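Structure (tokenized):
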């Protein structure tokens, strides 16, 4: 009988540990979503620089081109990839940071304010009229967090890392680090 009770306590201890770990993961995901929701306009900034519909078109005289009609380019849309990814590279292979992974939802975009239409998409299909934005290498330690953001349209790309600190239950943007463009 006593041996049976000891076995039950071991099982109970394992269940409690798993429950606590599950709660911690849930809290991290909720805090991560809060950061994205509060700072979506910071993370998806400078999209105008990718919009070719805003580029001025030079005028052409009729004697240069007989049947010239200016190209009409429709305004681009933003396609936010639905998953927070982890990308392995030389910098983070030896780093012991645990990166967060979760899927974005439409509710995460409620604070997005722009005249550009935004949609959550599953894949980058290389549509030349969609600016694809991906979030990756999202880390959170205590009240500090960082996330990398890559924006890509056609063959143009820009890569930044954003840093945040939590102050009074609000994630505050601190700085942006430029990683590259192409």
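Design, position by position:
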């Amino acid at each position: 009988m006593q041996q049976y009770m000891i076995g039950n306590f071991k099982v109970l201890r394992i269940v409690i540990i798993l429950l606590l770990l599950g709660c911690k993961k849930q809290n991290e995901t909720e805090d991560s979503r809060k950061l994205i929701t509060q700072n979506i306009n910071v993370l998806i900034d400078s999209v105008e620089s990718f919009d070719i519909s805003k580029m001025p078109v030079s005028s052409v005289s009729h004697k240069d081109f007989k049947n010239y009609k200016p190209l009409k380019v429709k305004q681009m849309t933003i396609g936010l990839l639905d998953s927070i990814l982890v990308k392995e590279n030389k910098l983070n292979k030896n780093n012991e940071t645990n990166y967060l992974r979760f899927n974005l939802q439409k509710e995460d975009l409620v604070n997005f304010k722009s005249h550009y239409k935004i949609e959550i998409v599953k894949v980058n299909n290389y549509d030349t009229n969609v600016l694809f934005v991906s979030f990756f290498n999202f880390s959170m330690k205590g009240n500090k967090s960082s996330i990398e953001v890559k924006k890509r349209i056609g063959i143009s790309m820009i890569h930044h890392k954003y840093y945040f600190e939590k102050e009074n239950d609000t994630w505050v943007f601190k700085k942006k680090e430029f990683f590259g463009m192409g």
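Reviewer-requested clarification: The mean pLDDT is 79. DSSP finds two helices and seven strands in the chain.
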